[in-house]
Amino acid sequence: MESDILLGLKDIVKIRIIDFCKADKPFIHADRLLDFNVFLYIVSGRMNIWESGKEYVVGEKHAFFLKKGLRHFGTSEIPEGTMWYFIHFHDVQEVENCRLLNNYSPLLMSGEYSEEDYNQYISLPKLLKVNNPNLVERKLNALTQLSKSSDDLRIAFLSYGVMELFFDLYSQERGRLKLDKADIAVRRIILFLENNISKNLNSADISRHIGLNYNYISGTFKKKTGLSIQEYHRKIRMNEAAALLRNSNLNISEVSDRVGFTDPLYFSHVFRKVMGYSPSEYMKQVYFRI
């Protein structure tokens, strides 16, 4: 959407100002076009704000994001006594060469992240009801006080603190999304792959277990995860192999066998392709082995 604010995992939000306000009399939101993004959190009261031809009613305990470069204004009075926090923040870097973060990353098994893994971005929710307003208000109050402190590092602490808040709100809103038929199928496939790390699975194995046509599930899987089923399976197998190389005294041949490769040379080839270096090179990076 035109009004969505995109936030890259490798970006840093640059804070312009963060503060707290209380309306001492009714007023109408100004008609303006800004060169920075705006975050609003309503402690009490409400605001009616137009952006891109749509009116948003921002109620009590709601968070709202306004995108830079878009005209926004009000036509209804904001009541006296309305209280809110606001953050003005500068735009983030371009995300043209990044991919949208999805729910199906195979990274968790290894706990190891590559530089490429940071080339992802999220789309911040536009308007949301906050699940834990007391926590959010404490964080916003702490950030507001920090912005007025004399700490030499306050600008950095502010940036990372605001990013943490934004990611928390994103995670909260994502958790409200209902799973559709495709999501359920993808999660069943992932569970099957994770339970069969040491097996070489073919399309018939997967189709038979899921009970759906393989062409359908493979296309759906690719659309949802950005990887083919075989690529995903290969990645989690290599993640498991990396964990074994790091946390056990198994040699490369034994690790190869443990993750279902009968040929250690082929295993090494696949490991290098997925991880970026050979198993022996990877082992040299480890401080010590059990």
Characteristic terms for this protein:
elongated; Jelly Rolls; Arc Repressor Mutant, subunit A; five-stranded antiparallel sheet; alpha+beta; 9 helices; 290 residues
Brief overview:
By secondary structure, the chain is an alpha+beta fold. It contains 9 helices and 13 strands.
Give a structural overview.
The protein has nine helices and 13 strands. The chain has 290 residues and is α+β, with helices and mostly antiparallel strands. The protein has two domains: 6-174, Sandwich (Jelly Rolls), CATH 2.60.120.280; 181-284, Arc Repressor Mutant, subunit A (Orthogonal Bundle). The strands form four sheets. It has a five-stranded antiparallel beta sheet, with helices on one face. α1 (133-147) runs antiparallel to α2 (154-174), α3 packs across α5 and α3 (181-194) runs parallel beside α6 (229-247).
What would you call the quaternary organization? single chain
Count of separate structural domains: 2
Please identify, by name, the CATH architecture of the largest domain.
Sandwich
Ranges with pLDDT <50 over ≥5 residues? none
Give the topology string: H per helix, E per strand: EEEEEEEEEEEEEHHHHHHHHH
Query: Quick one: biggest sheet?
Result: 5 strands, antiparallel
Q: Would you report the number of β strands?
A: 13
CATH class division of the largest domain: Mainly Beta
Give me the side-by-side strand order of the main sheet.
Answer: 2-10-4-7-13
Terminal CA distance reads 51 Å
- Mean pLDDT comes to 90
Structural class category: alpha+beta
Task: Assign an overall shape.
Answer: elongated
Strand content: 15-25%
CATH topology of the largest domain: Jelly Rolls
Determine the fraction of residues in helical runs and give it as a percent range.
25-40%
